[in-house]
Design brief:
The chain is built from twelve helices and twelve strands. By secondary structure, it is an alpha/beta fold. Among the domains are: 89 residues, Winged helix-like DNA-binding domain superfamily/Winged helix DNA-binding domain (Arc Repressor Mutant, subunit A, Orthogonal Bundle); 108 residues, D-Maltodextrin-Binding Protein, domain 2. A hairpin with a 2-residue loop joins β1 and β2. Keywords: DNA-binding, Transcription, Transcription regulation. GO terms for molecular function: DNA-binding transcription factor activity; transcription cis-regulatory region binding. It comes from Candidatus Thermofonsia Clade 1 bacterium. InterPro entries: LysR_HTH_N, LysR_subst-bd, WH-like_DNA-bd_sf, WH_DNA-bd_sf.
Length: 305
């Protein structure tokens, strides 16, 4: 008989591309992972993975099994939650992908509020690039995504739940730290530390620069980093000045290592979106979480103003 836990182990190994990483994720031993995969391979009389060193790549048979395994696991979750709901208990497991630094600062509060109302629901958060988490959402690997940018896809529903704002962060001893106010042209003569193109912070900065007829090529970019916290730390170390979310900047400012500086005429606000896959039916716990992330929505839209 096919066991659901074997399919869960198979999916974890496929998604992590490694038996050892799947073992860490599932809190199992690597021999237990290998044994479970071997059981599946004997049951179907096929090879599901090709092993190359520490990596495990799906065979053609494994690729065929993966979407079916995900469907069975999702169906089992829905059955379990539906039965639990008959007794008035909303329980379940929610997988959330976060592609924005701001989301990491907002989520603990939102999850704490949600679990106070639904203590039987577990919420796991995965922090990864936007491309990865949105693809996982489309493949039904995860349930929801927090993103600072919309993409045009008919299966994805984007709902704004927070207005974030980028800010210029400078080292505590920087000349701009005294007045805490500059003009856009002042940026041309200063070494800038920027996020990667496509991030919410960079997009907001790009639009503000364009509104003042400043092309990105005119800036003196000394460093690009793919992580907002890394930008803040680089600023603290005096490597330049940089734009980060106010949520990220708050730590550096509170420690006295950096100062926020206002750029005259810059509107650096941008929306964070809660995203779901329209094709995926929501379980009771998922529907409760989807609604909780939007109510009270105005509270969160006000915070970032």
């Amino acid at each position: 008989m096919l066991h659901l836990n074997e399919l869960e182990i198979f999916v974890a190994a496929a998604e992590h591309g490694s038996f050892s990483e799947a073992a860490r994720f599932l809190h199992l031993s690597q021999p237990a992972i290998s044994q479970s995969i071997q059981n599946l391979e004997r049951r179907f009389n096929v090879q599901l993975f090709s092993r190359q060193g520490r990596t495990a790549r799906l065979s053609d048979s494994g690729k065929a099994l993966l979407p079916l395994a995900r469907e069975l696991i999702a169906a089992a979750r829905r059955v379990e939650e539906s039965i639990n709901s008959l007794s008035g208990t909303i329980a379940g497991h929610i997988h959330l992908g976060c592609s924005t630094a701001s989301g990491k600062y907002l989520l603990p509060r939102k999850i704490a509020q949600f679990r106070a109302q639904y203590p039987a629901v577990r919420v796991d958060v995965q922090v990864c690039s936007r491309e990865v988490v949105l693809q996982q959402l489309l493949e039904e690997v995860i349930d929801f995504v927090i993103s600072s940018r919309q993409v045009d896809h008919r299966d994805l529903e984007f709902v704004p739940f927070y207005i974030d704002e980028a800010t210029l962060l400078v080292p505590a001893g920087h000349p701009w730290a005294r007045n805490r106010h500059i003009y856009p042209d002042d940026l041309l003569d200063e070494g800038l530390i920027l996020r990667e193109e496509g991030s919410g912070t960079y997009t907001a900065l790009y639009e503000a620069l364009r509104a003042h007829d400043i092309a990105p090529e005119m800036l003196n970019v000394v460093m690009r980093l793919g992580n907002a916290e890394a930008v803040a730390l680089a600023v603290e170390e005096g490597l330049g000045v940089g734009f980060v979310s106010k949520l990220v900047a708050a730590r550096s400012v509170a420690l006295g290592r950096a100062v926020e500086v206002r750029v005259e005429g810059f509107d650096l606000r941008y929306a964070l979106y809660f995203v779901r896959n329209r094709r995926t039916p929501l379980t009771h716990s998922q529907r409760a979480f989807w609604e909780a992330m939007q109510v009270p929505q105005l509270e969160y839209l006000e915070v970032g103003k």
